[in-house]
From TrEMBL:
Domain MaoC-like: 19-119
Molecular functions per Gene Ontology: fatty acid synthase activity
Gene Ontology cellular-component annotations: fatty acid synthase complex
The family this protein is said to belong to: Belongs to the enoyl-CoA hydratase/isomerase family.
Record GO biological process: fatty acid biosynthetic process
Protein name (database record): Dehydratase
UniProt cross-references to InterPro entries, sorted A to Z: Fatty_acid_synthase, HotDog_dom_sf, MaoC-like_dom
Amino acid sequence: MTAKVKFDEVNVGDELPPQNYHVDRANLVMYAGASGDFNPIHWRESFAKQVGLPDVIAHGMYTMAQAGRYVTDWAGDPGAVVDLGVRFSAPVVVPDEGGADLEVSGKIEDKREDGTVVVALTARSAGQKVLTRAKAVVRLA
C-alpha cells in the first residue's frame, strides 16, 4: 500500500485492503518512551490485572496511530491526512507471549468536491472492534 492514490481513481464504496499490525510489549515500551505515557497498565501485567484489566493493554493513542499509519500508507503521503478521529471502544490486549494483532481496513465513505475523501476505518483485535466512528479525511493527488 505505498502507491500514491489519485482522487479520480477512487469511488464511494471502494474498500481498502486490510492490513495487519503486530503489537508486542516492546512496541508499548517504545511508545511509552516516545509519548511520555508510562502508565503501568501498558507494561506491567500485575498492575493491569490489579485494576481489572485482562492483561497489559496498548495505549489508545498507539492504536489510533496505527489507523493513521494505515491511511498514510494507502494514500502514499503522510501529509495527505487532513483529519483523523476515532472513539475507543475496546482495548487492544497485549499478552506477554505472542503479543496481539491489530487489523485495520477502510472504505471510501464520501468523495468531496474539494478533492478530499472520507475513509471510514475499522480496527479489530482478537475479533473485537477496538475503534468506532473512526474516520479519516484525506486529500488525494
